[in-house]
Design a protein that fits this description.
The chain is mostly beta strands. The protein is built from two helices and 26 strands. The strands form seven sheets. A seven-stranded antiparallel β-sheet has the order 1-23-20-25-18-17-16, with no helix packed on it. Strands 2-3-10-5-8-15 form a six-stranded antiparallel β-sheet, with no helix packed on it. A four-stranded antiparallel β-sheet has the order 19-24-21-22, with no helix packed on it. It is globular, with a radius of gyration of 20 Å.
Length: about 300
Amino acid sequence: MKIVPYDPLNWKKDHPTGDIAFQHLLKGEPESPDNFMYILGRQDGDFFMPRHRHNFEQIRLPISGAMVIGDGLVLREGEVGYFPEGMPYGPQNDPLGRAQPGERLQLVLQFGGASGYGFMSIEQRRKAWAELSETGKWVGPNYHWPDGRVEWGLNTIWRHVFGVNLKYPRPRYRTPVIIDPKAVNWLNVPGNAGVDHKYLGAFSERGTWVEMVRLQPGAAWSSADPNARRLLVVTIGSGIVEGRPVEHLTALQVEPGERLQISTDAGIELFLIGLPPIQLPAIESDQYDTSETLPQEHVA
């Protein structure tokens, strides 16, 4: 089990716009289709990104402030957004407005989807950024080649790292899925007095799921999943895990079959994402593109 406390000083400017800083909480195994990166994002300035898509999945939870998704959609503070692999979103035009730099915080999980195309690690990305900067230059999310060509940066980096063109899975959903947890009931976890959860949904054939777990003051919870890796972040309160204190924004990584035992005196709430292993199909799907732009015939 990994327990990573929140560090208010440990921020890195890893976003191509430079207006977003990240605190890296948890990560998976590079080169694995199950790879992931769990981060806390901080908005430091007016933010803009053109309409774009990824070959991986995302789950987002704004802790403080909202996020403009595009197409008139806003992911509000406390809501949960699921962004399927291959699905375009944006443009994101998100000025700070009355918020102060660093005031807006958001949990972001990026992870390989059911297609099995995987997720590139931040270490691989940083190395590629540096190496590509020796011959061309980065302007926002785009890479400018010496001969004047301009390419979407993710495509350039993927080819540089893996030697093949990036594949974008065709979207399984037509829009991001936005969930309002306030409208979901707390239900008792059977056999656990003082422990409740809100089940927020499961997605794709992988069965990735999202829920919230709440322990009342004085309660304890012992749980294990034989199949799935579980990622948890403390959103309210505090508790004890393996004799160590866990507080606001502490992140936990619990492996399949590993038992999580948590107790609390004051009460605690956790945001939980379950990641079952990816099962690859016997024959790779032909439902993918090699361009960051979704073909018109597949636009919703």
